[in-house]
Structures are given as C-alpha cells and as structure tokens.
Amino acid sequence: MNRHFRTIRTAILLSTMLLITIIPAHLDDCRAESFTGETRLLKKLDPVERLTYFGLQYLMNNHQKRHYLSRPTRRERDEWIDQFWVDLDPTPTTEENERRTEHERRVALARRLFKMKKAPGWDKRGETLIRFGMPSYRAKTWGNIGFYEVTPPGEVWHYESLDMIISFQNFSLKGEYIYSIEPYGKSSRRELDRVKNVFDLLYYGILQPILPTEYMDYDEIKDLVDFNPDDIDYIADQDVRIEQSRDLIAGWEREKTEKKINNFYKYMKEKPTIYSFEMNRELLTVFFDVTSFKGGPEQLRTEVNFAIPASEIFFLKEADSLECEVTLRVQVRDINTKPISYGEDVIRAIQRGGETFVGPSFLPGQAILTLEPGYYRLGIEAVDTYSGRRGVLRTNLELRPFGESLAISDIQFASTITETEETRKFLKGNVQVIPHPLHAYRIPFPVSFYFEIYGLKTNKEGLAYYAVEYRIVALQKRRRGPVFEEIAPAITSRFETTGYGSTQTQTLSIATENLWEGPFKLTVVVTDRRTRESVEKDAKFSILD
User: Fold this and answer.
1) Virtual CA dihedral for 327, 328, 334, 337, nearest 10 degrees?
2) What is the tens place of the pLDDT at every residue in 492-513?
3) What's the whole-model pTM score?
4) CA 25: distance to chain centroid?
5) Cα(502)–Cα(406) distance, rounded to whole angstroms?
6) Tens-digit pLDDT profile for residues 155-185
7) CATH 2.60.40.10 holds for 282-401
8) 368 touches 342 (CB < 8 A)
C-alpha cells in the first residue's frame, strides 16, 4: 500500500515538474534577440571574443551583431568594438568611457558569480547583472514539495531606484536560474503572494538578504551597487495598517508588488540596459550650432557656438557677488572615430550684489576649430563647475570646400553685433558677433546675422563690386481669423556696395515689426557685379511673440 502510494506521488511530482519547466517558455521575449546565421558566424571567434560578444549582445541590435560578426579578422572586429563604444560614451570629450568600464566590470562579475558552461557563460541572474547592475537586495527563496505542487528554490532581486523586482527560480535544480514571473500583469496570484511574502520577511528582518561581502570583495562592488536613494513605500506605516482593513492592505500591497514586477519587463522593452551614471542624472540644457568659414589653404574655420540657460547654471555666492563657471568642450573625430581636433571654451559670469542673477537669459560660448573639408563626428559637452551638472550632445558634420569661385560662408545668427576697437571675445575683425545658436528672436528685437563672401573678382585697384539681396519667407501659413493666407515673402531687400579684396564680410540686422510668431527661412543672394555670377545661402530662424 505504501509502495503504491509512493508510486502515485512520484508520478504526480514528475508531472508537476514537467509543467513547471514548460511554463517559462513565454519568457523567450526577454532574451537577447538572435538572428539567422549567428551560430555559424560565432564559430570563427576565439573564446575571448565570444565572451565580449555575449556581453555586448544586450546592447546591440541584429544589424550591429551581423556587422560585427561579419568582420573577417580579429583586428577589424576589435576596431569595430572600439567604434561602437565611442558612440555610447557618456563623456565624449574625455579619455574615459564610463559606460564601457562599468559594462566590462559587470560582465566579469556575472561570469564569476553566475558561471555556466554553456553560452553565454552565465544564467539569467548574470544577464540581469549586466543589464542593470547589482540589486539593492538579493534574497534566496525556499523550494517546496507538496502533494499537488512543486515550487523550485529561487532568488528575488529588488532594485530600489528602479522600483523593480525580478524573481528567478532554479527549475532544473542544476544551478541554472531563469526568470519565473510571467510578464505584463499575467502573473499568478500565488506567485505574487510568494514574492510579496519574501518582501515582508526582508522588511521585518526575518529573512536576511544575501550580503555582497558573502560573494565578492568591497572593491569589486563599490562602483556597481545600486546607490540611489531609497524612495519606495511598498510597506505601509504600522499605524496606518491598523486603521485599514486587511483585505484593502493586502490588495494594495499586491498591486504595488505587481507593479514592481512588471517594471522589469517594461525596462526590458524600453531601456534594456541601465548604468549607474544614468540614475538620477539631471542633464544640463545645451543649445548649439556649427558655422563654417574659409580659413587657410584647404582649411576651414569651424565655430561651434553655444548658449546655456542661465536659469540652469549654479551661481556661487561669495561675499557680495554671484559667480558661475561652465566649461564647454568639443571633440572632433573622423568617420572611423579617430580623434582629429579638440576645442574648449569657458563661460564665466560675475554679478556684484543681488540674491539672483539678473543678466542675460542665455550665456554664450564658442569653440573654434581648424578642420579640412570632410565628414566628422562631434562630441559636445558642457560642465557646470559648481554643480557638476553636465550636458552631452553628439552630431555629424560635413564640411565642403569653398573653392576659388564665388561662394558664401554659413550664416551665423547673432544676439548682438557691435563694432569695437577693444580686444573682446567673439571678435571678427573689428566687429564683435555674439553667437545666437537658438535662432529665435522676440519682437521687436532685430534678427542679426553675419556671413562672409569669397571669390569676388576685383579691378586693377583691388576693388570688388557686388550686390546683396535677402528674402525672408514664412514656413507656415499665417492665420487671420478662420482663414490661412498664402505664403509670400515677408521681407525683401537689395543693396549694392563695394570693397577692397576678393573676400568681404557682411553684418545685417533686420527689423521684426513686420514678422509674426513662427518659423522663417532667410535666403541671402550675392551677385558679383563684374561677372554677373550669383550664389545663395539659406538658413532658418524663428520669431517668438
């Protein structure tokens, strides 16, 4: 009788275990996506390259994976990896790449703590560590064998700053942990209750979390732990709990737990990798544009113009003054991400007296570079010295040669243009042109801009004769009541002038009283009156009411 009972119980147990191992099949959506032919291409990589690839698969799309694996030699693959990381560098104007450093440390730690013999070399705990770093809490959960149900042992990880819970279970009982919670609000009530109970036991100190010091040295985790401030409230205050019904509290806590669980799948879909320097990081707003002018032989004078909102800069109060400092940096790389040039500027402002800064709304800056015609990648940073806030931008830039024929430089919009004999910042000859990269003007302040003309033909005395015409056209129809007017030039003007030399500079200020709120296109046409040759250049700006 006892033998018969044991046989039945064993059959039920095996059937239950089979069902449990089938359940996680839907979690394939959370693995790194593969593509046809990946296995074949992986065979040509040596073990070190495979480890690099398996760690990077969570950051790459299928196009990038195929492009990397298709490189014929290890040298080319290593160069591809270096270029890949340049585009992900959170501080593109410095030598250090914080994202790459943290990622490689995470991969090494995942391989040591959660090592598996089969690819990728770690289980789902290792994948989660690579994606999100070390959790705030990590606790083991018990396995349970009942007559009708088997619950394998597992772990629950909690990331406080991400408000996220991840549950793992050792379904095979061989040390390989996989995700155990069903995504998108479909988790069973039993599983939610199990995770919530672990939460409660952790909160009240009954269940002790796995301490980092149990499996690694402090130096290995000090830059990997989740060091964001505690801001969760999944356990209600005890006084509040007494006043609430138990059913209401239980439902509320289950709902909070379910949200934390589903946050994991939300991150996996929307932001599958998060690094510590991204957490609680308030970026500094940076406006910029790039204007190019003819320089020396086969060279271009390239100006990266900045505007930083004064309201976002930290002003240090010293005695009876307010002062700020923002460092602007530009790193230029070629198409292969090789560093080509570097530029820097420092914005400083000092105000005597007062509790708040009453100067301009935007503080200007400018980094000047000398570049050859070509295609470049720019990494741009602005760092507030006193607050540490940082703004980071990237852009691509194509510089074309001006040649020897008639040509116009880029149009540089300015906040003010002033003639001066003093040595000042933003000088062009005897004119100070303070850049205005926002290209936005308020009525009634004029639209001011600067440009240069090249390749004018001169007479024997060196005089050039030319005409300048400009047109301003609205890019959107203007509404007058219920009717939209047809787009027509808002402002047109033309004048003729002379100057010594084949290169001339022009500064213009156009009144805005006849303009209205919205975007506009400025077209400048220059005609050489000796050759009748013409050339034009377009630029866009906006009018604010």
Assistant:
1) 50
2) 999 999 999 999 999 999 999 8
3) 0.79
4) 33
5) 9
6) 888 888 888 888 898 887 888 898 886 544 4
7) yes
8) no
